[in-house]
Structure formats: C-alpha cells, structure tokens
Amino acid sequence: MTQLQDQGLLANPDTSVTPEKVRDGIGLRINGEDFRHTGDPELPLLWYLRDVLRLTGTKYADARGTGGADLVLVDGKAISAITLPMARLAGKSVVTVEGLAGPDGQLHPLQQAFIDEDAIGCGYCTPGWLIAGVDLLHRKPHPTDADIDTLPNLCRCGCQTRVRKAIQRAAKGGQA
Question: How far apart are the C-alpha atoms of 88 and 26, rounded to whole Å?
C-alpha cells in the first residue's frame, strides 16, 4: 500500500510549467461541434471531413464538384465540399449528412421521406441528395417539379423519380 501512496502527487509541484497558446488555425463549427484546422489552409473541406474527422457520408464524385455527392450545408447553403478550401471556412457553420438528424437521433423529415419512398438506391449519391433537398426546402418550402429538377445531383441507379417523391413528401409534412 505504501508503494502506491508514494506514486501520488508531489507535495511541491513544479509551478514553472506554462500552457502554450492555442495554435493558430481555422475555427469552424461542424454538425454543432467546434473544430480548429491547423493544417494546410488549401485542403478541401471534403478531405478534412473524410480523412481527419472520419465523417464519410459526404462522397467524392470528381475534382470539380459536379454530380452533388459532395454537398454539405455551409451557413445553410448547399456547397460542394471538394471545391471549398478550409481557408474559406473560418467562422462558418457546416452541416454534413451526419448532422441532419436531431441531437436525440430523430431523423430529419427529408431523411424519413427518403426511407418512406425507398429513394436510396445504392446509397452513394443519397447524402448529396439529402443536403440538396434540405437546401431546396429551406429556400422553397413547397418546391415544384421544375424546382427539384434544378438540383445538381446525379444518380446512376435511376432513383430520381423516388427522390422527387421524397422531397415532395417532406414538403407536405411527411404525407404521401
């Protein structure tokens, strides 16, 4: 027992230790949590999300951000994560597909509508469709088919018809 007590705190700790200042970096909020990126400011947000934070819902489609698989909400607006360098995100709020559900796990109405309408296909493009759909519903709570057709998303599985129904279902409050 005496050996264990000898390993305790020193009676006179060294008080010359001073904490270092917070490293410079890019502060941003992702899915409600604060982060500080201290690496390359030109790193695309997509790689920060996937490789650093391990938020893998946002997908890579191509280097130009076409196809919509890499969409995230930045201050409420859908933006391509591959084309957005970290340097442009200081003080911004980012929401990924992982952040759409409520803190209690309650699905976003559009997520539930995707399930109800079986609008998932292989799933690769689904996160981008959800982000684009949420953005559209914020801008136009009752979008027309023409509004939905303006979304930049591509689906090789052919789920566009079911995606349209899911967006319309969410706009109606979950009713078919």
Answer: 9
- Quote the CA–CA distance of 29 and 23 in Å, as a whole number: 17
Among left, alpha and beta (phi > 0; psi -120 to 50; other), residue 75 is left
Polymer length in residues for the chain: 176
**Contact call for residues 97 and 123 (beta carbons, < 8 A):** no
The contacts of residue 105 (CB under 8 Å, 6+ apart) are none
Amino acid at position 59, single letter: K
Whole-number Å distance between alpha carbons of 64 and 50 = 17
- CA dist 14 and 5 (Å) reads 19
Ranges of H-type helices in 12-171: 45-47, 109-116, 126-139, 145-149, 160-171
pLDDT in tens, 30-82: 999 999 999 999 999 999 999 999 999 999 988 998 899 999 999 999 999 99
Angle in degrees, CA 63, 64, 65, rounded to 5: 95
